[in-house]
Amino acid sequence: MRYQQDQALPEEGDLVMATVQEVFPQGAYVTLDEYDGLLGFLHVSEIATGWIRNIEHYVRPKQKVVLKVIRVNRARREVDLSLRQVTNEERRLKVMEVKRAEKANAFLRIIRERCSSMSDDEFDRCVSLIKDEYPMLYDMFEDVARKGTKVLEKLNLPKEIVDAIVDISSKIPLPKVEVGGIMEITCSRSDGIDVIKDVLTSVEGNKHNADVSITYLGAPKYRLVISAENFKVAEKALNSILQSVQKGIEKKGGTFKFTREESRKGVT
């Protein structure tokens, strides 16, 4: 098994992983790793902006590069590509996507070995069911790691495959992001300290699909950190908590100010 697109040719605008085959002054020929080694052409004008003295300063034989598809001739099966139009963020995300796909396929090979009593046809049928639900196969392993076998129930997979998936999923690192900042909270009431404590305790105990940590730094500052599986979930929790704290404090006559800190990525 290998990671490849279902379609025979990429679409204009797609990002592809390619292997450089031949380099010459006018450009480079590459093969597209995800399309069974389909040949593509990278013209020198699409390698970098400005004049290029030595093309091998940018691409060289056997190098893996992320390229953008800029033209496709389906009749002739010709693909023109660009390196200079790929942003750093696009490159990072594409490399991550390919690495995750490679890991997922390696996991499938392990599962196949563990399910040796199953016929090839039956195993391939199960893989097709999984891919229908999870086109990006690695997402399934992360989903199982987070939520357990309930995410597989509707697929009606054989127990031996489910057991193998669960075992592998339990060992993969889960992505985590952290967002937060410094809250400055005051309340001049005689019971101001208790008011602040009650407000912060209430939001810390609520469920936000994220881990919430509030640390006292010394009056009037408190550090708020939200840990979640992705930025969308983390930001939603952060906004909800900030609104609750501000509303709760100001309702009691206090003041509230929030200063954002730099977000972080990591794994659990």
Automatic annotation (TrEMBL):
GO terms for molecular function: ribosome binding; RNA binding; translation initiation factor activity. Keywords: Initiation factor, Protein biosynthesis, RNA-binding. Pfam families: EIF_2_alpha, S1. eIF-2 functions in the early steps of protein synthesis by forming a ternary complex with GTP and initiator tRNA. Belongs to the eIF-2-alpha family. Heterotrimer composed of an alpha, a beta and a gamma chain. NCBIfam families: PRK03987.1-1 (NF003062), PRK03987.1-4 (NF003064). This is Translation initiation factor 2 subunit alpha. The gene is eIf-2a.
